[in-house]
Specification:
Elements lengths: L1 H17 L8 H20 L10 E5 L4 E5 L15 H16 L4 H9 L32 E2 L17 E2 L4 H20 L1
């Protein structure tokens, strides 16, 4: 009973905030949205530390667009931060309906989408890869040449495993010129 109450409260809060009328969308579309929502729930749970991809509860009612996703660690993910979820679909549909009401006024249409962005605006990066940055030496820009420091493909760096340096050359303009000249020669050969 507690889960059902939480489901209703969470879903109603989402729908009240968006002022979206589910009946403005065909039932077949709402059913597809619910399918996407229930498919997204396990993936959303995987983004939450300590949760598995098997939610405790994962429901969606197409008639009302009430949905509930409760992860294995009893946390409900914020579905508004993701696409392929009910909040995303209702937001984009609200924007589409707003655009239709603008009667071709491009400023109004732009405001419909800019003032009501859908999906994550500043998504959290859960799976972050650490990168290393290097600093350039203080040589003049005109004399700098791009170099490939790993031509042997072993990924070795440092003094003991450093690969020989080799200048990279952009050959695309050379190949393009060869194709162009070859085309002219072939064209003249067929005329003769």
């Amino acid at each position: 009973m507690l889960f059902k109450t939480m489901f209703i409260l969470a879903s109603v809060a989402t729908l009240v905030n968006s002022q979206f009328d589910p009946t403005s969308v065909p039932i077949a579309t709402r059913e597809a949205w619910c399918g996407s929502q229930t498919s997204a729930c396990p993936l959303l749970c995987l983004q939450i530390p300590g949760a598995s991809g098997t939610p405790i509860s994962n429901t969606c009612e197409a008639e009302t667009l009430l949905y509930y996703c409760l992860c294995s660690n009893n946390v409900t993910p914020n579905a508004t931060e993701y696409s392929q979820t009910i909040p995303y679909y209702t937001c984009t549909e609200s924007n589409n309906q707003c655009v239709l009401k603008c009667n071709g006024d491009s400023t109004c249409q732009n405001n419909c989408r800019v003032n009501n962005p859908c999906g994550a605006q500043d998504p959290k990066r859960v799976n972050v890869t650490t990168t290393t940055t290097t600093t350039k030496s203080a040589t003049p820009a005109a004399t700098e040449t791009p170099v490939n420091t790993n031509i042997n493909g072993n990924g070795a760096t440092g003094a003991t495993g450093a690969a020989p340096r080799m200048a990279l050359v952009d050959m695309s303009h050379v190949y393009g010129l060869c194709v162009l000249v070859g085309g002219f020669v072939a064209g003249f050969a067929t005329l003769l």
